[in-house]
Design goal:
Layout: H1 8-25, H2 37-60, H3 65-94, H4 97-111, H5 115-122, H6 139-161, H7 165-183, H8 187-192, H9 198-210, H10 221-238, H11 251-262, H12 271-274, H13 276-283, H14 285-303, H15 309-335, H16 342-368, H17 378-385, E1 398-400, H18 406-419, E2 422-427, H19 429-441, E3 447-451, H20 468-474, E4 479-485, H21 502-513, E5 522-525, H22 558-571, E6 576-579, H23 581-585, H24 590-593, E7 594-595, E8 598-599, H25 609-622, H26 624-630
Parallel strand pairs: 1-3, 2-3, 2-4, 4-5, 5-6
Antiparallel strand pairs: 7-8
Length: 642
C-alpha cells in the first residue's frame, strides 16, 4: 500500500471494534453487543483487500497471488503463532486432561486456519462450555483467512470478465449470503461458517467504488460519520447474545462501519477516529484481539470466580501491554522481509512451516496421550477417574433401552417371567442417573431405564419415550410402577434463574397423565442438585488453589423448582404422586461433593458412579414410596454413607 493511501481513521475504527469486543468479553454488561466488533473488522477487511486487489489489477494489468498470500501470512501468522505457543504452555500447566485434549484440537485447527469449522462441528448439546475454550476467538481468523483464499480469485476473475461483472458478482454474493444467514435454521453454521459472512466483506468491498463519489460540500461528511458511529454504538449497547445474528440485524453495525469508512476523512468529527490514542490502539488491535481472550479464560479457569471491576481494569491493562509487546516485537519486524529478494520470504515460509508443525505435534501428542494425565498427582488422578467410573448392575434384567421394538418386548417378557414385575424409569439424561442409583441399591431385579438426553415432554422435539404410553397400557400386568425424572433447570430461565415455569409443570403433569394405568403407581421424582461446578475444571490445580466456597453455584433455585412441582402436584387432581429428591438428600455440601476421594458428580449436573451409589442408598432409605417399588438390598441396609 502506498503511504499516501494510509487511512488513520480506519485504525481509529479498528480501535472501536476491538475495544467493543474486549470490554464485552471482560464482562462489562453495558457492552452486551460488543461482539459486533468482529463484524466491523470484516467490513474493514472487505474494503482494504478489495481496494488492494483492484488497484493492483488496474495499474499493472495483473495480480500476483503468490505475493498477496505471503503478505497475508506475514501480517497474520507471527502474532498468532506467539499467542498459540504461549497459550499451549499455559494450558499444559492449568487445564485438566480432558480440557487439554479439547484445547489441543482447538490449537491444531487454529494453526491450520479452520478453527471456525471445528467450533461449528462441536457445537451442540454436549459441547464443552465456552468458558473453557481458550482459542474460541480464533474462529473469526479462520473466516478471514478463508475469505483471503476465495476473494482474490473472485475479484480477478470478475475484472477480467468485464467491468460490469464485478459489481454484479459482489451484489449477488452479498444478497445470497445475507439471505441464507438470516433464514438458516442451523444458527451455529450461520455464525461460524464463511459463506454466511460474505455479505459483510461485500459491504466493505462496495466502498471501493462508492467512496469515489464524495459530496461537493465536505461538511456533509460530518453527519454521515456520526450516523455511522451511532449505528455501531447502537448495536454495541442494544444487542445481546439473544439477537438473531448474523442476518438482517447485522446490517446496522456493518453499514455503520461502511459509513464511517466513507466519511472517515471528515474534518471535525473525523478526529474521533484520527486522534493519536485511537490510531495507536487501532495499530495494536490485531494483537490485542489475540491476547485478550486467553487472559479471560485461564485466570477464570483457575479461580472459578467472576472478575471484579478492579480485576477487569487490570486485565485490560495487561492485555494492552502484551498486545503492544507483540505488535512491536513480532508483528512489525516480521511484517515485511528485510531484503526485497525472495530469500527473506523463503526463510519466513520455512519458519512458518516449522512453527505450524510444532503446534500440530504438540496437539497430536496431547490428544494421543490422553491429555497428558501424567501431570496429575495421585489424589487428583483418582478424583478425575471417578467421573468416568461406571456403576455395577445386579443382572441382565436391569437395563436401559433405546426404543420400543420387538426385541425389547421379547426381553421384557423374558425378564418379567424370571425376575418379576418391572419398574420403568422414564425421562431425560437425569433418568439415567436415577436408574443406576435405584437399580444398584434396590432389591428389585427387573428395572428398565428409558432415558433420552436433553428431551422433555414440553420440548420442541418428540422424545424417545413418547411411545411408551401404549407400551405401559399393553403391559400393565408386568409393571410395578413408573417413575418420571426431568432436569430441574429446564423449568428455569437459562437453566438457572427464576421465575419457575409453573405452566410448564402443569403441561408436564398433563403429559404424564397419559401414562397412568389403574393399579400402577406413577411417581414424579423431583430434580437433583445442579451445582454447575465443572468437575474437570479444577483438577489440575487442586493441590495449590483453595476453594472453600466452590459450591456456591449450587444456589440455582433447584429448591424453588422442587417446591413448585410439589405444590402443583398437590393442587392438581391427577394420578401423579411426587417424591422430593432434594428434600430427602438435603443440601449438597462440600463434604458430600467429594466422598472417599471421589466426586459424586461426573459433570455440572449428573451424578457419578459414587453419587449413584451414595445418593441412591439415601433415597431408598428416605422414601417409603421408593422402597415399596425397589426394596433395599440386604448388603446396603447398614452400609455407611461415606
Amino acid at each position: 500500500m502506498n503511504v499516501r493511501d494510509y487511512r488513520p481513521d480506519i485504525d481509529g475504527l479498528r480501535a472501536i471494534a476491538v475495544l467493543s469486543v474486549v470490554l464485552f468479553h471482560f464482562g462489562w454488561g453495558q457492552f452486551s453487543g460488543g461482539f459486533i466488533g468482529v463484524d466491523v473488522f470484516f467490513v474493514i477487511s472487505g474494503y482494504l483487500i478489495t481496494r488492494l486487489i483492484t488497484g493492483e489489477v488496474a495499474s499493472t494489468g495483473a495480480f500476483h497471488f503468490r505475493r498477496f498470500y505471503v503478505r497475508r501470512m506475514r501480517r497474520l501468522f507471527p502474532a498468532l503463532a506467539v499467542v498459540l505457543l504461549l497459550s499451549a504452555i499455559a494450558a499444559a500447566f492449568i487445564f485438566s486432561p480432558e480440557h487439554l485434549k479439547r484445547f489441543s484440537r482447538e490449537l491444531m485447527t487454529a494453526a491450520l486456519s479452520v478453527s471456525n469449522i471445528f467450533f461449528f462441528t462441536v457445537s451442540g448439546y454436549f459441547d464443552v462450555a465456552k468458558k473453557f475454550q481458550a482459542l474460541l476467538h480464533t474462529w473469526s481468523l479462520g473466516v478471514e483467512e478463508q475469505f483471503y483464499l476465495v476473494w482474490p480469485v473472485l475479484i480477478v476473475w470478475a475484472m477480467r470478465s468485464g467491468r460490469r461483472i464485478l459489481p454484479a458478482a459482489l451484489m449477488a454474493a452479498a444478497i445470497a449470503s445475507l439471505y441464507y444467514a438470516q433464514t438458516l435454521d442451523d444458527r451455529s453454521a450461520a455464525f461460524f461458517l464463511t459463506p454466511f459472512r460474505i455479505f459483510e466483506f461485500a459491504i466493505g468491498a462496495s466502498l471501493v467504488w462508492l467512496i469515489k463519489v464524495q459530496p461537493v460540500n465536505k461538511l456533509l461528511l460530518e453527519p454521515i460519520l456520526l450516523c455511522g458511529l451511532g449505528m455501531i454504538g447502537y448495536a454495541v449497547f442494544a444487542y445481546s447474545s439473544e439477537t438473531h445474528l448474523p442476518g438482517l440485524l447485522t446490517l446496522p453495525p456493518t453499514v455503520g462501519a461502511a459509513l464511517a469508512i466513507y466519511a472517515g476523512r471528515a474534518r471535525y468529527t473525523g478526529l474521533l477516529l484520527r486522534n493519536p490514542l485511537s490510531v495507536w490502539v487501532g495499530k495494536i488491535s490485531y494483537s490485542l484481539y489475540l491476547v485478550h481472550w486467553p487472559l479471560v479464560i485461564f485466570p477464570a479457569y483457575i479461580t472459578g470466580e467472576p472478575f471484579t471491576a478492579i480485576e477487569r481494569v487490570g486485565l485490560l491493562a495487561v492485555s494492552i501491554a502484551l498486545a503492544a509487546l507483540i505488535h512491536y516485537g513480532v508483528e512489525q519486524p516480521l511484517r515485511r522481509p528485510r531484503a526485497q529478494a525472495d530469500g527473506g520470504n523463503v526463510r519466513f515460509m520455512k519458519g512458518l512451516a516449522a512453527t505450524t508443525l510444532l503446534l500440530l505435534v504438540f496437539g497430536a501428542s496431547v490428544v494421543l496421550g490422553q491429555g497428558w494425565a501424567w501431570r496429575l498427582s495421585p489424589d487428583a488422578a483418582k478424583l478425575l477417574a471417578s467421573t468416568t467410573r461406571e456403576i455395577e448392575m445386579q443382572g441382565e434384567c436391569q437395563y436401559e433401552i433405546r426404543g420400543s421394538n420387538e426385541a425389547f418386548q421379547q426381553k421384557f417378557n423374558d425378564c418379567a417371567a424370571k425376575a418379576g414385575k418391572a419398574v420403568l424409569i422414564v425421562g431425560d439424561s437425569h433418568a439415567s442417573d436415577l436408574f443406576n442409583a435405584l437399580a444398584h441399591n434396590g432389591a428389585r431385579r427387573h428395572v428398565v431405564g428409558v432415558a433420552d438426553g436433553g428431551c422433555r415432554p414440553i420440548g420442541p422435539e418428540a422424545c424417545r419415550y413418547d411411545e411408551f404410553g401404549a407400551f405401559i397400557a399393553a403391559n400393565r400386568d408386568k409393571l410395578a410402577g413408573v417413575l418420571f425424572v426431568q432436569m430441574g433447570g429446564y423449568f428455569l430461565t437459562d437453566l438457572r434463574h427464576l421465575p419457575v415455569d409453573t405452566d410448564g409443570i402443569d403441561e408436564t403433569i398433563d403429559y404424564l397423565t397419559r401414562f397412568a394405568q389403574p393399579g400402577i403407581p406413577l411417581l414424579w421424582v423431583g430434580p437433583q442438585w445442579e451445582p454447575y461446578y465443572e468437575v474437570n475444571q479444577f483438577v489440575a490445580t487442586m493441590p495449590t488453589v483453595e476453594r472453600p466456597d466452590y459450591l456456591r453455584n449450587s444456589a440455582v433455585h433447584i429448591a424453588d423448582v422442587d417446591a413448585a412441582i410439589e405444590a402443583v402436584v398437590r393442587r392438581r387432581e391427577s394420578p401423579v404422586d411426587y417424591v422430593s429428591r432434594t428434600g430427602i438428600l438435603g443440601p449438597l455440601t462440600a463434604d458430600q461433593f467429594v466422598i472417599d476421594g471421589e466426586y459424586t458428580y461426573s459433570d455440572t449436573d449428573h451424578w457419578s458412579a459414587k453419587g449413584e451409589e451414595v445418593f441412591g442408598r439415601r433415597l431408598l432409605a428416605g422414601s417409603a414410596r421408593l422402597r415399596e417399588m425397589f426394596g433395599l438390598r440386604e448388603d446396603r441396609e447398614t452400609a455407611p454413607d461415606t
